[in-house]
Amino acid sequence: MALSIFVLFSTFSMCFLASSRDLLFVNAHSQNLTQSPITPINYDLYHSSGNLMEEIGALVHRHPDKLSVETIQARNKGYGADVTVVTYCKGKNENDEGSRFRILLSFGQHGRELITSELALRILYILSGEKIIPSMDQASLNSILDKLVIKVVPMENLNGRKLVEAGDLCERRNGRGVDLNRNWSVDWGKKEKDYDPYEENPGIAPFSEPESQIMRKLAMSFEPHVWINVHSGMEALFMPYDHKNTTPDGLPLQRMKSLLKEVNHVHCHERCMIGSGGGSVGYFAHGTATDFMYDIVGVPMAFTFEIYGDGTASSRDCFKMFNPTDLASYNRVLGDWSAAFFTIFELVPHKLAEIHSKLSVLKLDKLVSIDEYLDGYLMERRNRYGKKMEVLELGMQEIRTYFRLFLLSSVLLLFMFCSRISKSKCSRPIVSVMPL
């Protein structure tokens, strides 16, 4: 009996020690995961937001014959934003812009994707002529650029970028926690089962954010033939749509797909994913800029490019996940993708030649349904004073006018009613009371 008790006790002790050892191993493993190193921003490679914008300003100042810059400001409910726009137009003849192909490029829409703004700077250096693409003849490049007007937004989300530089390396949203690539009106606000507000907060309404308002107005006034929204996190060349698993039909699909295939072959070495954003990534994105540009603005070729991603990085190590961390990778990304953009600049006139004459004549003055109107369909027209206004703003002006007329007519009616009552009382005959 005593021997049995001893054996039982020994077995229990061994199991307890084994369980404790396993528990300690799990705790140690979890602790290692939580304490895994987080890669800081490498300022030997990357510019701070302030330095990058200063360098762009100096570049524009050195080449006034090719480049110009403006900073657009907007504010909504106590939150303000500045968006810098650099325009390349050789000769800067604004009257000649309408006959050229127009390209709109946006970088840095998500704060943590620093490499995209570095690419914007590299492209501007090449446009200025201070840097070259070794594989491209300079005379040929100049001939290509003569046909183009290019607007570059180097850092769409400056406020979010500042949060990243302050230490929140995983922040992708703007300065008040809204994902700018979910704040557009096409299919806005729909949430998937795996919706994460930290990643995809669409805001309180379409275009609630000043940054999105600025970009919308810029696109509506510029009417680009090509839109490219540049991101990092993977390597991909996406066309519409992001909010559903379909692509445009017919000629638009063929035109966009042929361009992306050529870029993938020449510059991405067949490793980039091609297709619709919604059908390729594995999740739907609602309220994106590219879907709005294609469906509402009517941009013939609208793309989202993903230029870099490190799949080996932990989910907490965001700088490494979204940005190259060594000099060789940094230079490779900027070299490959800047060359890819200039290949696109070369191909665009050929891809759009058959419809360019139509696009020059067609304007956005067309009838739209009330659903499109309320869904953020914005087009420009001239009011009675000749000033350009967006339809939504014009509509709100008319509503305010009618509301003022309603108030005025209500006051007049009330005054007339009171006057009639007063006159009725005054004209009533006086009857004296006689005692019985």
Automatic annotation (TrEMBL):
One of its GO terms (cellular component) is extracellular space. Its cofactor is Zn(2+). CDD domains: M14-CPA-like. Residues 45-347 form the Peptidase M14 domain. It comes from the Eukaryota. GO terms for molecular function: metallocarboxypeptidase activity; zinc ion binding. Pfam families: Peptidase_M14 (PF00246). PROSITE patterns: PEPTIDASE_M14. Gene3D superfamilies: Zn peptidases. One of its GO terms (biological process) is proteolysis. This is Peptidase M14 domain-containing protein. It comes from Clitoria ternatea.
